[in-house]
Amino acid sequence: MMAAGTPDLTADTTPDLVTEMFGRLTSSMAALTNRILGADRSVEAVLLLNERMIDIADLAMAEMGKVTPSPRPIACQTGCSHCCRLPEPLTDVPTVIGLSYGLMASLDIDHYRRVHARLANAPRPGCPLLEADRCILHAARPLVCRAFNAYDIGNCARGLFIDGARGTGIELGDLWPMGICAALQDGLAQGLKALGLDAHQVRLAPALHRIVQQRDAVSRWLAGEPVFADLISQQGE
Ligand code: SF4
Ligand code: SF4
Fold first, then answer.
1. For the chain: N or C, fewer Cβ within 10 A?
2. What pTM, to 2 d.p., does this model score?
3. Element at 104 (helix H, strand E)
4. From the CA of 216, how far away is ligand 1's center (Å)?
């Protein structure tokens, strides 16, 4: 899936306003990260930070959708999962920690073991959290998954995203959600760095697997160790 990076949305909107809006999102997210993890360097604080980040992302996308509606209907619908069959998403470590605890909290033991068997077999095409064309942790899915959208399911089904990711012309939908999520990711990274925490975006499956395999991985990351820094790309392992 796409990596973080604020897309150019200035074509049809006042550039200064766009820059200011994204800047505010970024600085607010950085300040929120600093406030929550600066006061309490714990798993509970990470989960709270994730909740707040998701709330802000969903609210900002909903409000932006009212002010600047998508120029074409968005084709995404429940059960459509071609985008989840791309190479697994890159995401931030707090989100990986949240997903890890989400798996423990929401799955029975047999289901949990099946998911972790898939994690152990990474790298693989597609996301290990996809089952029967559904995301098993949809409410806690990464920002990049919340933002990704398309105008044409057919293009997704034909794999144009995959070709596009290789540089032959990507077919995307509305860019505003992606800009909002990229701005929030930038702010999160700034906040984490200011606290001396590793702010790399990491590959979802091996990062989740590492948390299962290394019981102290989360506490070491919270102490400032770059526990996941080798998982930043397909070539990272
Ligand atoms: S981005 Fe494409 S594959 Fe993913 S939900 Fe939307 S239409 Fe379906
Ligand atoms: S985390 Fe969920 S929404 Fe994101 S790629 Fe995986 S299955 Fe799809």
1. C
2. 0.88
3. helix 93-106
4. 36
